[in-house]
């Protein structure tokens, strides 16, 4: 009070300006100290850092980080984004250091900039140690060969329904209307997840609200985290809550059916069957097995599955289009094993296992264009990463899965599915470079299911459709949304390639 009455406004202004200047200088100094000997810009714009460059053109922003990391001996580079110091990691073995040290006092997965606010704390990716392990153990029954084989029929029925719809839309336009596959494939994947995860427990109405809510969530996940009514972020939070509640109801219904000894027909059933069995044996209910928590975990599944799968399906179409010899080998292999025109029904599990080349193609799509190009983590403490560099507490680190895909493998810049065949086995030989599904304790739980989905889609789409990419200027450029997609959303001319639909009564 006394202070302010002594100093008039005109006198205070210079003090405020110098205080502000001091803060800005401290910000720069703190950046330079944290950066140490890493390559990176010497001066960063105050407060927002290089966020504008990142938002304007993420691809070239990350390419520059990668190029800087390449010329440095350590395989690291630094930058500054909205008050956060960041370290980009190009070297595969250094990325392993991050993935292998996810624990309370080292690295925490970020998932989404406002993830905890958006999803709530009960989220697989924010769990650690024994607690996390116990949930991962609970999830194992969801991805056994038997469970996966149940899903393959469900997946195919959804793929067929969508492909048939695409055909029909095409016949209206005489096969001459270009379609951007991005939204179509997103819809296909959302319906697949719904059906595979909780299918029988959702009626038509629930399915529709589910779609609307998932879209609200998507819009909000791109928005600023302002949690008041009518703002996208608040809408998204409420949508997530409704979705998780719906999924919790499904968990309850599934428990009742499994307790009555019925056969599992979707993912939640395999999960609840194990839990119900444990309770029946007289043991207490396992931790995190209440309906609400299960609903929350199922939402994580949905979120984790959706964008990554959409990305991989789109790149598969784009790459098959630009590599005609690969496409014709896929078609040859599939035709030898499965042919709807000879009266075959759905692809059986044995037939799927026989499609070795198609599986190599799927693996190569994921290597060549890993959907999540980086897996950001935050350092909870200082972490000594190399002899000469310690990651300061609070740093966001970006291990680049994308860069690892182009290290080790023979001629890594070639799209070459044969690298995964039984002679070359590069999936074993260069296992440590295949980081598209992450590594160590938090490695993708859905990876086998995700690869099956990609193989099934490639087999069915290339057998049932003729497609030609409408190539526009730089259509193969990588855009971040935030998993990667071809810039044009994969725009194709599409037409029907087979005269008959698979015989669904023969399975
Ligand atoms: C091509 C498709 C997919 C890709 C590229 C992908 C990639 C990833 C990556 C990079 C991670 C982080 C791993 C780590 O931190 O080590 C992850 C985690 C996860 N993924 Fe996937 N994923 C895909 C599909 C799926 C599907 C279909 C599901 C669900 C069935 C799924 C469920 C999850 C879950 C639940 C986690 C968190 C695991 C944990 O924190 O313990 N993902 N995924
Ligand atoms: C694997 O691919 C290579 C060509 O890259 C080929 O020479 C070899 O015969 C293939 N092996 C199998 C089992 O197909
Ligand atoms: C479809 O399969 C069923 C059962 O195998 C068979 O009876 C029927 O004739 C088949 N239909 C066609 C059109 O092939």
Automatic annotation (TrEMBL):
Its EC number is 1.14.19.41. Heme binds at residue 444. Its cofactor is heme. It is an enzyme of class 1 (oxidoreductase). It catalyses: 5-dehydroepisterol + NADPH + O2 + H(+) = ergosta-5,7,22,24(28)-tetraen-3beta-ol + NADP(+) + 2 H2O. One of its GO terms (biological process) is sterol biosynthetic process. Pfam families: p450. The keyword Lipid biosynthesis applies. The keyword rRNA-binding does not apply. The chain crosses the membrane at residues 6-26. GO terms for molecular function: C-22 sterol desaturase (NADPH) activity; heme binding; iron ion binding; monooxygenase activity. InterPro entries: Cyt_P450, Cyt_P450_E_grp-IV, Cyt_P450_sf. Keywords: Heme, Iron, Lipid biosynthesis, Lipid metabolism, Membrane, Metal-binding, Monooxygenase, NADP, Oxidoreductase, Steroid biosynthesis, Steroid metabolism, Sterol biosynthesis, Sterol metabolism, Transmembrane, Transmembrane helix. It comes from the Eukaryota. Belongs to the cytochrome P450 family. This is sterol 22-desaturase.
